[in-house]
Amino acid sequence: MNSVIKFIAGRRGAWVTLLLGLLFAGLAFGPLAGAKTDAAPGVGLPADNETVLVDDALKTLPGADATAAIIVYHSDSKFTEAQKTWLQGTFDAKTQMLAGGANEKFLKFTNLKVMGNAFVPPATISEAGSTAIITVPLDKSDEVKVVGDRVKEMRAIAKDGLPAGMTAYVTGPEGFQADIANVFAGADFKLLATTAMVVIVLLLVTYRSPSLWLIPLLVVGTVDGMAGGVVRSLASWLGISLDGSITGILSVLVFGAGTDYALLLISRYREELLLFKNKNEAMARALREAAPAILASGTTVILALLTLNFAELEGTRALGIACATGVFLAMVAALTVLPAALVVFGRWIFWPLTPKFGGINKSDNGLWAKLGRGVSRKPVIVAIVGFILLGAMASGASGLQIGLSATDRFLAKPEAVAGQEILAKEFAAGSATPTTVIVNNDKVDEVFAAATGVAGVDSAKAGLKNDKITKVDVVLKDASGSDAAYQTITNLRTAVHAVDGADAKVGGLDAQGLDVKNAYSHDQSIVIPMILALVFVVLLLLLRSIVAPVLLLLTVVASFFASLGAAWLVFVNLLGFPALDLSVFLYSFLFLVALGVDYNIFLVTRAKEEAEKLGTRQGMIKALSATGGVITSAGILLAAVFAVLGVLPLVALAQIGVIVCIGVLLDTLLVRTVIVPALAFIAGKKFWAGFGKVKFDN
Which of 79, 88, 91, 334 has the most CB atoms in a 10 Å sphere around its CB? Predict the structure, then answer.
């Protein structure tokens, strides 16, 4: 290890390290980079899931590769006769059908034919007489561009020549697919630009140097670009899908973690430049002392992310693999390319606050040292007050609701959502997204009777069939994605499963939503204990103590629930979010525990180093004074970077950003600053009790 450190920090080794880093970056941006894809990611439920089995069965039916767009026409008042005629056309005695209606505007899109001619069913008008729907059968496509272009053209056609007083919306499965893809259009650039600006501003404030900020920014920015290419290649090799939310979180995590590691190393390098005349020796010392904390921190985050591979949902597993790869690259760059670059440029890169050999380390008598001494005088009171404060904030989550409907998942309301809301008011709420029941042909009548007898079912009708199975479309009364709809799905499954010999299975969007909800509950019960166990083991091995890891883990868990409570109050009272998205609890817990413990690692590893020379009390004060400034800067930067997730269009990402932002600030300004030192002062040398005899004095 020492030889590697000496090489990276050496006069010639630094240049070689930089060249090797540039070579790998070139490979990562070139041959190793996976191609970008516009394919929409799947839901990712396991192959034996009931919804997936229904989808597989549908593929055996004629017209299985079909979907639909629903055109919603609405007026604030009851349609006039002229508007009805425009919508439905007039009765053609020859064909015995309505002709000349708005449905004929969409004939070029339909995959349905009647007597060899393209056909779109005429408009259906609601009982209130102010809303009409036209269902356009379409060939299914997973290509985002194909779907987007098709929906864009249909929306233009729907609004063309629209009678006065009427509005038109394109919704349904096709509309939602297009809008979900569209909300991420240009989001990558917006996120990257915003993140980079936040990092630049905070680095300038932290370093107060016109040049120093460029080095960590260039290193981390390059790593972010490399991570995107490597992750796409890895995803292609593993056969998993990446969507805009995954790549967005990846960028934020790479920038946040990478900059944190850079701040820690640069801070220690500045310290050592006061003690060593030779910049190479100073960097070698800084790298030797900072590397264990960075490695422990990065390893903790990586292992925590990899626990997501035990999740049921493909998207969750993809997030874990992608972000673990990104953090690994950021950690490696912080321990190799960054120190090499700093050595190459030398002391002048710190100008105008250039550290001079033999200079005084002002942190020994600074704000953080004074705070540490203050906490040491009354640690019990400080710890009690700190935990009371965390508990009070956690109580804000008492009315927490989990599970957003499809119409509540966007920060800005896209057209498909607006159309769905109108449709739900005027028709049976589930008419746009009927539930699908697959049943053996000889049991259709029995299953039909069982389905229509379930409370919450509005109607049912038999549809496509082959020589073995029949598809039954079931319309629910309640809004898609609501708790009431999910309860109806549960009751419907119970009813049709009870039909002997029917082999009935229930699928569709609401069934899928319920299965995804259950999958997240399962994943939380598996992944969260694994995260806690892994973090504990890493702390155990790093600190060689039993007491310290327990106390540190306790603080980060308390911090998570405090941030969750505070964020919920923000969501309800300021942002108007009715509930947390299903993914938010698990992802927020992962990021806060894994990243929050980082600051404890940075502090406590330095405290252990100093305790061997100064004792537990003075060692913690010294550690707090030495790391207080850099950890605070790192925490504020990480919190700001996660807050940037709010520029993306999904409520889930905004919620994760707010929760993690609040949690990181709590970890930085309260937990690491006062609660952890207070616990260490209370425990004394027992804080380090573990493997072997404790040699630290109080």
Answer: 334
CB 150 within 8 A of CB 174: yes
Is there a contact between 663 and 563 (Cβ–Cβ < 8 Å)?
yes
Please write the tens of the pLDDT for every residue from 507-543.
888 898 899 989 988 889 999 999 999 889 888 888 8
Instruction: Assign 92 to helix, strand or coil.
Output: strand
Spatial separation of the C-alpha atoms in residues 263 and 102, rounded to whole Å = 62
Tokens encoding 623: 């550690």
List strands edge to edge, sheet with 457-465: 457-465, 469-476, 435-440, 505-507
For residue 561, pLDDT beyond 90: yes
> Hunting for tokens 């119409």 — which residue is that?
407
Q: What is the mean pLDDT of residues 454-466?
A: 86
CA torsion through residues 316, 318, 322, 325, sign: positive
Distance CA 677, CA 555 (A): 11
**pLDDT number for residue 39:** 45
**pLDDT tens, residue by residue, 145-180:** 888 889 999 999 999 888 888 999 999 888 888 887
Instruction: Dump strand ranges (E) for 480-593.
Output: 505-507
Q: Which one-letter DSSP state was computed for residue 40? A: P
Handedness of CA 107, 112, 117, 121 (dihedral sign): negative
Instruction: For 338-354, give the DSSP string.
Output: HHHHHHHH-GGGGTTS-
**Residue range 336-344: average pLDDT?**
88
List the beta strands (DSSP E) in 101-240: 113-114, 117-118, 124-125, 131-139, 166-171
Helix 379-394 × helix 367-377 angle, to 10° = 100
**Residue 315: exposure state from Cβ atoms within 10 A (0-12, 13-18, ≥19):** buried
Within 8 A by CB and 6+ apart from 83, the residues are 75, 163, 165, 166
Residue 99, beta-bridge partner list: 90
- The whole-angstrom separation of Cα 410 and Cα 175 is 14
* Amino acid type, 469: I
Q: What average pLDDT does range 414-436 have in this prediction?
A: 79
Rounded CA-CA distance 344/330 in Å is: 20
Helices (H), 208-278: 214-238, 244-273
Does pLDDT of 581 surpass 50?
A: yes
Whole-model pTM? 0.85
Domains of the chain with CATH codes: 1-32+183-355 (1.20.1640.10), 65-182 (3.30.70), 361-413+517-698 (1.20.1640.10), 434-507 (3.30.70.1320)
Our measurement of the distance from residue 446's CA atom to the centroid of its chain's CA atoms, rounded to an integer in Å, reads: 44
Average pLDDT of span 96-108? 81
Q: What is the pLDDT of residue 28?
A: 65
CA angle in degrees (0–180, nearest 5) for 356-359-362: 120
Measured CA to CA, the distance from residue 574 to residue 576 in angstroms comes to 6
**Least trusted range by pLDDT, from 10-14, 68-72, 144-148, 283-287:** 10-14
